[in-house]
Amino acid sequence: MTGRRPPEKPGGCAVVRSGTILGAGPDQTDAGQVLICRGRVSRACPHQPVPIDADGCLVAPGLVDIHVHGAHGHDLTDPDPAAWQQALAAHLAAGTTTALATLASTSHGQTADALRTAAALTGSPVTPTLAGVHLEGPCLAPEQRGAHDPGRLRTAEQLLDELTPLPEALLMVTLAPELPGADALISYLAGHGVTVSAGHSSATPSQLLHAQHLGLLHLAHLWSGQSTLTRPALHRLPGLLEASLASDGLTAEVIADGHHLPPTLLTIALRCLGPQRLCLVSDATAGTGLPPGAVFRTGASTGRVHDGGYAATEDGTSLCGSVTPLAGCAARMREMTGAPIEDIVTMATATPARAAGLYPRKGSLLTGADGDIVLLGAALEVRAVVLAGHLVTDALAGRAR
Ligand SMILES: [Zn+2]
Ligand SMILES: [Zn+2]
Hints:
Elements: E1 14-17, E2 20-21, H1 26-31, E3 33-37, E4 40-41, E5 50-53, E6 58-61, E7 63-68, E8 70-71, E9 74-75, H2 81-93, E10 96-103, H3 108-121, E11 130-136, H4 156-162, E12 170-175, H5 182-191, E13 195-198, H6 205-214, E14 218-219, H7 240-245, E15 251-255, H8 263-273, E16 278-281, E17 295-298, E18 301-306, E19 310-313, H9 326-337, H10 341-348, H11 350-355, E20 373-376, E21 382-387, E22 390-394, E23 399-400
Parallel strand pairs: 1-5, 2-6, 7-10, 10-11, 11-12, 12-13, 13-14, 14-15, 15-16
Antiparallel strand pairs: 1-3, 3-4, 6-20, 8-9, 17-18, 18-19, 20-21, 21-22, 22-23
Bound molecules: zinc ion (2 copies).
Residues 136, 146, 199-200, 220-221, 224-225 line the site of one zinc ion.
């Protein structure tokens, strides 16, 4: 995409009152309100901030989804800016105020085109929630590829070549660290500040630790696309899953859409890692918002939406991402684990923002943070969304603006 970027919508001035504030600093909680001046959380605002009555809701930072592939039939590997605008707007209306556009494995040409679209759109008013790109693949272990097209997987050397020089918008890469040549790729990405994540991988505990020493910081969707315990002879060998749960210092994702993981596994993940290391992600595909039976594309693969709120590959053998925006996953995580609401909010805001290197500007309501807020009801349903000080959706008033 070329041409001049339209001027950024200036941040608004607003004051959110009469709610329970989460993720704020002492400045805001003392006053029982969150003040936003010109789009940033502030101690003072001389511009007559617009009052927003939270009506007893939880006042939380806007949700941060670091693993989201699309919505409403639009997959983000489609380099058309209109597709990105519509997909990200759907997630914004559902409470996601910061998104890492996540690209499943597809051809080199299409990935490069999508990265160019991302560079043009990041920070633009067309897609105000777009923080950058998360490449999920194409350097993945074939036996753990899940819904990724085997014909689109590439070697670490090939991906290193494709990503040199580093694309502007790239914030995160999920790869299989045990593959030949991965060391150089991990070192290159980590050295440039890109978050490296292990996923769709059969890495052993020692391979994971080695990658961590090279700069790997994160783990993609626990239990999905990860090797697990085996017992080839007398002795048990832990897989990437057990290595992840026993790890120190790494952050990790779970897809708590009610289909990928049952309550027992979510509880194990939360007990092992805690809310400061466990991130809720949607892994939401283009199938999000489509009716049952709808067929959609994700990367170079095809999925189908099923009754009951899930999507599977066409042959029905594997789940194909989710069809639930992040706020829905947060609500399901609360139902399935009974974790405190503060911890659920942390896992959908501060922890993923940290994992992507965006905290505290995103994922917090500390002074100076972006004025992105969700108002949540008692079941964590989204009641209103504020983006850079502007009210975007307002279920409290029963209308969208
Ligand atoms: Zn995946
Ligand atoms: Zn994914």
